[in-house]
Design goal:
This protein is of the alpha/beta class. It has helices spanning 15-25, 37-46, 66-73, 88-96, 110-123, and strands at 5-10, 29-34, 51-55, 79-83, 101-104. The chain has a single domain (5-87, 98-123), classed as Response regulator (Rossmann fold), CATH 3.40.50.2300. It has a five-stranded parallel beta sheet with strand order 2-1-3-4-5, sandwiched between helices. β4, α4 and β5 form a beta-alpha-beta unit. The longest helix is centred in the C-terminal third of the chain and has 14 residues, at 110-123. 33% of the residues are buried.
Amino acid sequence: MVECGTLLIGEPGCRLATELNPLVADKGYRVRAVEDIKDVFLTLQDEKVNVLVMDACLPEKMGYEAISIIKSMYRNLPIIVTTDENNPELESRVRQMGIFYYHVKSFGTDELMLAIGSAMARSSR
């Protein structure tokens, strides 16, 4: 299968990356998983990333605050923010930063996979 893009997942423990890897591999995407915001920035600097999926609270507790920095450096990078809890205040804050999609992990992976596919299609334009 031809590789169609790289998905960077920034999340403590990389549980989501483990769960998504077989699903995205079937679509030809490469998964790169990191556990902290520093490694998100280093990976974005060193590799071509098509879509970023990041936890709202990385270990440094600056997950969503980093969005504005990332968007200023990589304006067209689709960012999907994941969270453990459905929090309307957090959702409102991150949506104002121009994210691509907001995902509550307890809702399962079907919608997240649709969002990743749409974001990949958008990033390849």
